[in-house]
Amino acid sequence: YRGNSIRIPTKEASDDQKAEFFDKISRFDGVMRAPDLEDPESVAQFYQGLGRPEDAAGYQFEPIDGLTPDDDMAFAQTALEANLTRQQANYVREKLTNSLMESEQAQQEAIKEQIDGLKEQWGKAYEHNIQIAKAAAKQLDDKLPGIADYMNSVDPKGLYDVNTVKMLNIM
After folding, report:
1. How confident is the model over 44-82, as pLDDT tens digits?
2. CA angle 31, 32, 34 (to 5 degrees)
3. 115, 157 Cβ separation under 8 angstroms
C-alpha cells in the first residue's frame, strides 16, 4: 500500500489541485464525484454513471398487456427526465402498471355489482329497460354528444354506469 495515499485538498487548494485529487480517486471502483448542480453536463454524467441511459430509447421494457409502444416511449421519456436508471424505471413502470390494472379491475367489479343489483331490481324488465335507456340516449344525443355512442358501444360485459341507465330509463 505504500505510495497509494492520497492527500485530501484543503479549502485553500487551487482548482488544479482539486482536479488532480478527483482524478486520482475516480480511478477506484464505486467512487464518483458529486455533480455540480449548476452544470447540466456534470449532472448528466453523474446520472449516466449510475446507469441512466443517454436517451429515452435506452430504456428497455418487457411487454405488458394493455400498454402500447407509445405508452412505453412516453414513460421512458419521463424516466429519463427523472434521471432513473434502467432498473429503477422498470421497477416503477411495473408497480404503476400493476396498481392501475388492480384499480381498473376493482372499478369493473364495482360496476358489475351495480349492474347485478339493477338486474335484480328490474328482474325480467332489465333488457327492456336497457332498450328504453338506449332510445332516450339517442334522442338526447344532440344535446349530450356521445351519450348514444356510449350506450350502444358499452363493453361486451354490459358494464354500464347504473345511474346513467336509471336516469335515461325514466326519461
Report:
1. 888 988 889 999 999 999 888 888 999 999 999 999 999
2. 140
3. no
| Cα distances (angstroms) measured from residue 48 to each of 31, 53, 58, 127 | 14, 6, 11, 60
Q: Any idea which residue has 346513467 for its cell?
A: 164
pTM, two decimals, is 0.61
Q: What is the pLDDT of residues 109-159, one digit of tens each?
A: 888 888 889 889 999 998 898 888 888 888 888 888 887 777 776 654 555
Q: Which amino acid is at 43?
A: V
Is 56 in contact with 73 (CB distance < 8 Å)?
yes
Gyration radius from the chain CA atoms: 30
Residue matched to cell numbers 351519450: 147
Cell numbers at 1, concatenated: 500500500
Q: In the chain, what is the greatest distance between 2 CA atoms, to the nearest angstrom?
A: 93
Q: Is 28 exposed, middle or buried, given 0-12, 13-18 or 19+ CB atoms closer than 10 A?
A: exposed
